[in-house]
Amino acid sequence: MGPDPLYSRNSALFVTLLVLALLFPFPHQAWAKREHLVYFPNTPYELNIYKIHGKRPGKTLMLIGGIQGNEPGGFLSADLYADMRLEKGNLIVVPRANFYSIILNKRGAHGDMNRKFTHEENGTSQEDKIVTILKGLISESDYLLNLHDGSGYYHPTYINKWRNPKRFGQSVIADSEEYPVPGTRKVVKLGELARQVIEKVNTHISHDLYKFHFMNTRTADADSPHKEQRRSATYYALTKHHIPAFGVETSKFLPSMDLKVRFHNLVINAFMGLFDIVRESPGLMLDPPELKYLIVAINGRSPVVAMEGQKIEINSGDTFTVTHIEANYERGLSLDILGHGGLNDFRRDFEIFKNTTIIVRKDNQRFAEIPIRITGKVKTPKAVRPSPARIDYFVVETMGQRLLVGNRDTLRLVKGDKLKILDILPSPSPSDIKVNFKGFVGDRKNNTGEDRGYTIDTGKDLMRRYSLHKKGMVYPVIATKGDSRLGRFLVHLSPPKMDYLILRVNSHQHHFLRPEQKVTLSRNDEICLEEISTNLYTTKGIHLAVNGRRVKPGEIARVEDLCAASAGNRHRVDVKKGRMVLGSVFIDLE
């Protein structure tokens, strides 16, 4: 279960650092140094740990990011501290505690990892092993920050549905106001520390909605509404090792990723200042991920360099290994050779017998594809499995995830979501098995009925007459071999709709609007679409349409300009994605 030193870029340096750590135990070192430990390398569970020792001794702060995989503000912020140099004090940085869930963009692929920190020994699952490692790191620390993104905006009093004591965004969270350490006179003053940090942070935030507040979950109290936090990393750190531990939550509703990372950085830097950990500022790099090249070994021969846009040609049955990914980021990279291995096929050997594609990801973002094409005579794999009498699962890609849909199950999507059928399991070898999405034609010039590999836009690519009952809501996907049906699942489409939007007016007022509601404005007002909630899995491409004018989220528009093209005092504002209207609100002019 230990780290693999061979994974380090420089093995000799890695070993030297370990020897230094043994001679001068952390955190009492006399000079600056840095350790990089890797557990479970080249797997979807890869765990990278960075220990940064300052030039002068001091306290140790631990940062955990990505313990819940669908909260990128936390792990992208922690990333910026992994290469930091310190004048005084120490950092332990775990940017991606749950890389598997980050790749899948799920809170927890196998349960919430932040609910596994009990005082008892952990089990034997991969997540349990990671939690055991994190517990050990907590025992080396003087303070802990667990970085998250939360829904809405926390406020100690109720303001509206998304700004109240039950929301988490823009808060610093502790399990109690004060914690008396058992058997001692020591009291950990969590609330006092958090408020000092919040006061400093809020001086850099002008927007009242974005200011931080202290949230006390009262985790140990009998009437606490947050009893589940008793299995969290912060509660474990506080009650087992008696160190100040805080959750830091930026809002999932913030209009940009840069803003989430900036707010996390403000809080982390304020805590570092409070704990007298003297830093050199990390660089803020949130450029889109770009692949420079892959290094590939074929049959163990000399490496081949492959760039995006190129295709890799091999012979059927060749052994294929990707040995290096060169991109504008170093961390959070994984790759998937479709139809082979699992979520992360980096540095794994495969025999390739058919055309496929390499998918390269940064965290859960797919940013490059390189096709693999078979040339020459096609060989058959040595072990050919017989065709099954039926199949168990369909492998599909939708909503930014790869999913297994069971035979006879129903996949529920929103009309307009995109879907790609990748494979069936068990994967049979006969080529006469077809997977057909009824109502979709991938190649209209040669409609074979085989629909695997096509990206299907459920908003515009489907023919209503092939849906069940011809209502355009439920479509069958059927796998057949000749006249025999091997399996089927249903795609159920719900109409796309807006739940609500938050309209900012003149930079200081906020209006919460549901469909068909109205807001009264003057022609001199300026508006901005600050938040939008729909039943679609992504808000990408969503905008407002007013009298033929298009307003994107975050864009500031004058009411006078929007309403000038139409007479009357009431103006319809459509919320649209592409040509689809998700809902409407109204502007009434004073």
List the helices and strands and how they pair.
Blueprint (H helix, E strand, L loop, with lengths): L10 H13 L9 E7 L7 E7 L2 E9 L7 H8 L6 E9 L4 H6 L21 H14 L3 E8 L2 E2 L8 E2 L6 E4 L4 E2 L6 E2 L1 H13 L10 E4 L16 H9 L3 E7 L5 H18 L3 E2 L11 E8 L5 E3 L5 E4 L2 E10 L5 E5 L12 E3 L3 E7 L2 E11 L17 E6 L2 E6 L3 E5 L3 E8 L7 E5 L17 E3 L16 E8 L2 E11 L3 E8 L3 E5 L4 E4 L4 E9 L7 E5 L2 E3 L4 E3 H5 L6 E8 L2 E10 L1
Parallel strand pairs: 3-4, 3-5, 5-12, 6-7, 8-11, 16-21, 24-29, 32-38
Antiparallel strand pairs: 1-2, 2-4, 4-13, 8-12, 9-10, 14-15, 14-17, 17-19, 18-20, 20-21, 22-23, 22-25, 25-27, 26-28, 28-29, 30-31, 30-33, 33-36, 34-35, 34-37, 37-38
Helix pairs in contact: 2-7, 5-7
Describe this structure in words.
This protein is mainly beta and 590 residues long. The chain folds into four domains: 5-279, Aminopeptidase (3-Layer(aba) Sandwich); 291-375; 393-494; 498-589, no CATH class. It is 15% helix and 38% strand. The protein has eight helices and 38 strands. Strands 1, 2, 3, 4, 5, 8, 11, 12 and 13 form a nine-stranded mixed beta sheet that branches. Strands 32-38-37-34-35 form a five-stranded mixed beta sheet. A four-stranded antiparallel beta sheet has the order 15-14-17-19, with no helix packed on it. β20 (356-362) and β21 (365-375) form a beta hairpin. α2 packs across α7. The N and C termini lie far apart (68 Å). Mean pLDDT is 86; it is low at 1-30 and 384-388.
